[in-house]
Amino acid sequence: MTTVRLRTKRAVKRALQRLGLDVRWYVPRPPHDLFTLLERYGVDAVFDIGANTGASGEYLRNIGFKERIVSYEPIAHLYDELARKASRDPKWFCENSALGEADGVRDMHVTGGGGVSSSFLASTGHMEANAPELRVIGRQPVKVTTLRAAIDQHYPTGDRLLVKIDAQGYERPILEGAGDRLSRVVGMRLEMSLVQSYQAEPLIGEMLGYVYGLGYRLCAIEEAWSNRDTHEVFQVDAVVFRTDAVRP
Questions:
Q1: Over the stretch 160-182, which tens digit does the pLDDT of each residue have?
Q2: Which of 48, 88, 130, 214 is most buried (most C-beta within 10 Å)?
Q3: pTM of this prediction?
Q4: 143 located within any domain
Q5: Exposure string (b/e) for 187-197, b if CB count within 10 Å is 16 or more?
Q6: Which domain, by its residues, includes 33?
Q7: Domain count of the chain?
């Protein structure tokens, strides 16, 4: 969705809310949509890592997911908007932090375009060449916690957690920070790259090999970012589950 379209939808939604109307956008479901998978695997909580201003949380509610959502966003002004949205939903929680392989504070490269491409990793130049609005505009120190600590805090029991990670090349260190708590994660939605946009970013072949080694299998995949003119695909969203844990 373009930035202009997103801003227009937000403006329309705010105008209708002033009239006492809460509008949710209709999202048609393809045959193997995310909601079907959430039901099939009995997902009872979602961690939204790299939440930005909450679009993924809104999407989950729009497709009918009614269980707990915990969103993580480290960049201050994006987190403020996220927290405002989550405050209206008693089952939507948010944390002003990034996730990584260890606790601490670390500088993040903050990009334009609403901060959607901000990362701990430095850019290779590919992103700016294809979307100049996503160039780095600054750095910000952010709090970092681990997926292990996040699970202990927000999902201390159960084994039906779905983890969505949109961390711009930093997905693997986040998963490595889970340790043995990864056994509670039944599925993941991960951004995977076909072209390296960030230094030291693993590409899709390496990432699929890694998650398969953890016991997950690919259940759905969709385009996430492509060249506007050539339609070359740069990134996809891959949905993986422990297929031996499917509900009968």
A1: 999 999 999 999 999 999 999 99
A2: 48
A3: 0.86
A4: yes
A5: bbbbbbbebbb
A6: 27-245
A7: 1
